[in-house]
Amino acid sequence: MIVDGNTTADDVKMFLKSKEGAFAEGKSVALVVKKGALTYDGKPAYFSAGTMSRERAIELIADKMDGSVFVSTTGKASRELFEIREKHGKSHKTDFLTVGSMGHASSIALQLATELPERRVVLIDGDGAVVMHMGSLLVAAETAPKNLIHFAINNGVHDSVGGMPTPAKQKSLSDIAAACGYGRVFKAENEDELSKLLDKLSAEDSEALTFVEVITTRGARKDLGRPTLTAKENIDNFTAFLRE
Ligand SMILES: Cc1ncc(C[n+]2csc(CCOP(=O)(O)OP(=O)(O)O)c2C)c(N)n1
């Protein structure tokens, strides 16, 4: 069934009723929902105390942590990192963009940091992604590679897919990371704080697994594009870079 702006709740109910036989036989039934078919009159409660955009935060992290191995989370964060590299004339080979598997960037970065103790691994995560696989925080804290810096961009929403609030709104991810056992935890609420913290982190040899919660605004540039390299090209270039 195709659901569009003219479909009523009764149409859907009747359709599902007509498929009871198929359900009883264990068959699959599909409802395809057209863009714009669903509306919502309620007002979500947003939290965003931030003044800096996610893209600016990622630009600062990419710039000041230059020379690191990067892993970025699913969605617009990875698209922004890709465009930042283009803008700065930098190679994409240092960056693993986690396509599709939201929440897994942290486990990918953890394993990389464990396997590559001589390299600094920078993880750019999202609050929705942290919430989705929060157990990974405990695993990371137990493994505790001191060459991993876990940045969690907290805009309070699933920005990449329409901006629905995440359960992380008004919760402190940095407090949660500390409670999970991360060795060092920071929170940057604006560009100045992030910039100063990055200067400190980039200049030192880290002694502990580090978590940085970065508070940002919601939303992205209207003209944000998509990576022009395929996921296969990304992984091929990235693995070649790791072997260098
Ligand atoms: C397992 C899985 N569930 C859902 C999605 C769809 N999805 C892609 S990005 C995203 C939102 C990510 O939210 P957050 O981590 O807060 O980052 P933001 O988009 O706010 O930068 C969702 C739900 C997905 N790719 N994979």
Determine the strand fraction and express it as a percent band. 15-25%
Coarse morphology:
globular
Bound molecules: thiamine diphosphate
Along the chain, the helix and strand elements come as: EHHEHEHEHEHHEEEHEHEH
Count of helices? 10
N-to-C CA distance:
52 Å
Report mean pLDDT, rounded to a whole number.
95
Strand order of the largest sheet: 4-3-5-6-10-9
Helix content: 40-55%
CATH domain fold name of the largest domain: Rossmann fold
How many strand elements?
10
- Compute the gyration radius: what is it? 20 Å
Structural class: alpha/beta
- The CATH architecture name of the largest domain reads 3-Layer(aba) Sandwich
Major sheet: size, sense and barrel closure? Answer: 6 strands, parallel
The CATH first-level class of the largest domain comes to Alpha Beta
Pick out the low-confidence regions.
Answer: none
CATH superfamily of the largest domain: Thiamin diphosphate (ThDP)-binding fold, Pyr/PP domains
Tally of discrete structural domains: 2
